[in-house]
Amino acid sequence: MSIPALDTTIAGSAANSYVTLQNAEDYFDAQLGSDKWTGAASDDKTRALLMAAKRLQGENWLGGKVASTQRLAWPRLNVKKIDGIHPDFSWGYGYGYGGFCDEYYANNEIPQQVKDAQCEFALIFLSSGGGSSVAAGTISSFTVDGLSVNFAGEGAAAPTIDESRAKALIAGLIAGTITVRG
Fold first, then answer.
1. pLDDT confidence of 159, banded at 50, 70, 90?
2. Does 31 fall in a domain?
3. Is 126 inside a domain boundary?
4. Residue 178 within any structural domain of the chain
5. Domain enclosing residue 98, as ranges
6. Per the structure, how many domains does the chain have?
7. Whole-number percent of the chain with pLDDT over 70
8. Burial (CB count <10 Å: 0-12, 13-18, 19+), residue 25
9. How does residue 157 score in pLDDT terms, banded at 50, 70 and 90?
10. What are phi and psi for residue 114, nearest 5 degrees?
11. Beta strand segments in 31-104, E
């Protein structure tokens, strides 16, 4: 079974990644704790990047897609840059924080933090053996109000997957969660 090639065509109908394998290699060259990435086979890295791009698809992004035919969530329309520069420098202070600026991501621009988050999620998938949830142990009991999960077997514990670093990268680009009640 062959692995699909990474397609990073911006707003492409067949795009499946925001970063190339070389982009990810460059990202991890500058990161501590990326031993799982550097030690992985090229095919596994590609699989992890594909899984990470799919993981990012599940976010409730701000704005809207540039084209109805684009496969990935980015690029998007009407998303203000988090630390953008206001176009009117006559104010005397050209920098602001999202809401104070009128600088938006271009319709052919993928924010660097989205690319970095894809790399971080890829590392998570490589580190966890491909899963982003409990990968080992059988759940023997589950309590809703007390929110406790017990696993069968001696010393079995829930493996923890820390997505906080990846999620922090994209936090300013996410609209939040939506609760739907019937």
1. very low
2. yes
3. yes
4. no
5. 21-133+163-173
6. 1
7. 69
8. middle
9. very low
10. -70, -40
11. 64-65, 76-77
Give per-residue pLDDT as tens, 104-131.
999 999 999 999 999 999 999 998 876 5
Cβ atoms of 57 and 73 within 8 Å: the answer is yes
Coil, strand, or helix at residue 95?
strand
| Residue pair 123/35 in contact by the 8 Å Cβ criterion | no
Q: Does residue 117 belong to any structural domain of this protein?
A: yes
Would you say 149 and 142 are in contact if contact means Cβ atoms under 8 Å apart?
yes
The model carries a pTM of 0.75
What would the pLDDT profile of 47-81 be if each residue is shown by its tens digit?
Answer: 999 999 999 999 999 999 999 999 999 999 999 98
* Residue 133 pLDDT exceeds 60: no
Contacts of 66 (CB under 8 A, 6+ apart): 11, 75, 76, 77, 107, 108
Burial of 115 (0-12, 13-18, 19+ CB in 10 A): buried
Report the pLDDT value the prediction gives residue 132, as an integer from 0 to 100.
47
Sorted by sequence, the CB contacts under 8 Å of residue 36 that are 6+ apart come out as 123, 126, 127
First-to-final CA distance of the chain: 43
CA gap 49, 47 in Å, rounded: 5
